[in-house]
Amino acid sequence: MNGYFPSIYASPVSLQYRMTLTAGAHSARHIRRIARTHLEIWELEHLTDTVELALTELIANVVRHVPDSRCKILLLKQRTGVRAEATDTHPELPTPTTTVDPDSESGRGLFLLAALVDRWGVSPASGGGKTVWFECDGITPH
User: Fold this and answer.
1) 13: DSSP letter
2) Which pLDDT score is estimated for 124?
């Protein structure tokens, strides 16, 4: 018999991805590709557009508001979907707005994030800085 037998030592599918980086102009593109790959592996492809756009907003906020542009990204498969976090070194917590000036060049990121995802929040990070996170439920639309 010449069948394929998977190794008993093969590692299981990772349920998380972590990355530390100095965010720049092209970082969002790379992080979107990483997220897309993990969502495919986790069989959550239907969340791809939402997660990619939400991650782009988190990275844009790091580039724009964090002086050293350093952050840690976490993608975490959950029982019912995915959670993403961006932890940076800047201690100032963002203040979400309920209205957006139509002529403003900025200020829409968290407003957009709230409209896209199922849950999101921000909290002080241990050791300084903050973590902005969001969760998307993986319930397949009918």
Assistant:
1) P
2) 93
Q: How far apart are CA 14 and CA 107, in angstroms?
A: 35
Backbone angles phi, psi at 132, to 5 degrees: -105, 130
Rg of the chain in Å (alpha carbons): 17
* Overall pTM > 0.70: yes
pLDDT at 126: 87
Order of all β-strands in the sheet with 119-124: 16-22, 70-78, 81-88, 130-137, 119-124
Residue 126 structure tokens: 């241990």
Other CB atoms closer than 10 Å to residue 10's CB: what's the count?
A: 7
Positions of the chain with pLDDT under 50? 1, 142
76 burial class (0-12, 13-18, 19+ CB within 10 angstroms)?
Answer: middle
Give Cβ neighbours of residue 120 (< 8 Å, ≥ 6 apart).
54, 110, 113, 114, 132, 133, 134, 135
CA 21, CA 18: separation in Å to the nearest integer? 10
pLDDT of residue 13: 79
| Dist. CA 131–CA 33, nearest whole Å | 22
